[in-house]
Amino acid sequence: MTMHTLLHHRLTRRATALARHVSRLARRPSRLAASPSHVARQLVRFARVQARCCAFAVALFGGMAVSKLLSSHLSFPVARYDLLLAYGVLLTAVGYALGWETRREVAVVAACHVLGLAFELVKVLVGSWSYPESGLTKIAGVPLYGGFMYAAVGSYVCRSWRLLDLSLTGYRARATAVTAVGLYVNFLTHHWLPDLRLPLGAALLVATAGARVHFTVGELRHRMPLALAFALIGFFLWLAENIATYLGAWTYPSQLHGWEPVPVSKWASWALLISVTFVICGARRHDGTSPADGARSPGGGGLPAGERRGQLGPHDHAVAGGVLGRAGGEGEVAAGGVVAVGGPGEGPGHGPDDARVTG
């Protein structure tokens, strides 16, 4: 090999290495100090995306509030619980037709509905709360529409994953799933067995230690600890409980003689139980998603331009476990799978130990 050829090979290798380094830097989230106006724009963008994520929940609770208001002035030929069930089914169908949910997301929402009904059946059985109104679609005192409160949380989680392009690093899928199942079972069995809420909560903190949620707002990639995400979601679900009870969607015993804030303890309950929906919604991410199942809304359902669910973007690659991850930079997904945010805990409006009166 001549000196000229050797020099050419060395220069080529160095140029290739430099190009790869520049590419990695370009894909990393910006760490430059943002101006106040830029921060404000990012917050507005984030709020808009969150509003889209809550579309199903807002429509559902809006229907509950309207039905409550109308039932106090009008006489319906059909029981209000039955009307709410029909409304929830119609809302799900319309949401799918409009591209709010994909086929797999509808399946996840249905799973949350079933788990929510199972939760309601046990809680009504032990007298934690009741549904006093009549209805043809009640089983063991529980109207079938009650599961839609849990389905709304599942819808929020699925849409957040897609619209914010969520991914995880440092996530322990098996440990988180086992702990989430334990939390769900404990909130059902603590009526007869010792309440293991505190040790299970500590176990959840251990299982999620070091895990980070990565999400996209506008052109920037952000991240936060997974445990913090649970706490924030729990807070906003607690806030939603306050709004819903104020509108009369249901009533706590302490609110029978006038509205008052929902106890802050419900925030803690949601922060723990959100892990259940997190595991359910994330389990589907272990499977490859075909383009046919991807978001059907214009622009790829919130993903960066040209990147739709089930398709590799310019900076993505497949990792072990069949999960698509963002190559390089902060957003790379750990091998072994990804699971997402949300929670069919005790449903909006009731905690593990509280009696509830609906209607």
What do you see in this structure?
With 359 residues, the protein is mainly alpha-helical. It has one domain. The chain has 10 helices and 9 strands. The protein has a 3-stranded antiparallel sheet with strand order 3-4-5. The protein starts with a helix and ends with a strand. The C terminus is likely disordered.
Layout of strands and helices, then pairs:
Elements lengths: L2 H25 L8 H18 L1 H17 L8 H18 L5 H23 L12 E2 L2 E2 L4 H16 L3 E3 L3 H17 L7 H12 L3 E6 L2 E6 H21 L3 E2 L13 H19 L32 E4 L3 E4 L30 E2 L1
Antiparallel strand pairs: 1-2, 3-4, 4-5, 6-9, 7-8
Note the main sheet.
3 strands, antiparallel
Helix and strand succession? HHHHHEEHEHHEEHEHEEE
- Per DSSP, what share of the residues sits in E-state strands of 2 or more residues? 5-15%
Instruction: Report the mean per-residue pLDDT as an integer.
Output: 75
Q: Which keywords apply here?
A:
359 residues; mainly alpha; three-stranded antiparallel β-sheet; 10 helices; 9 strands; 9% strand; elongated; disordered C terminus
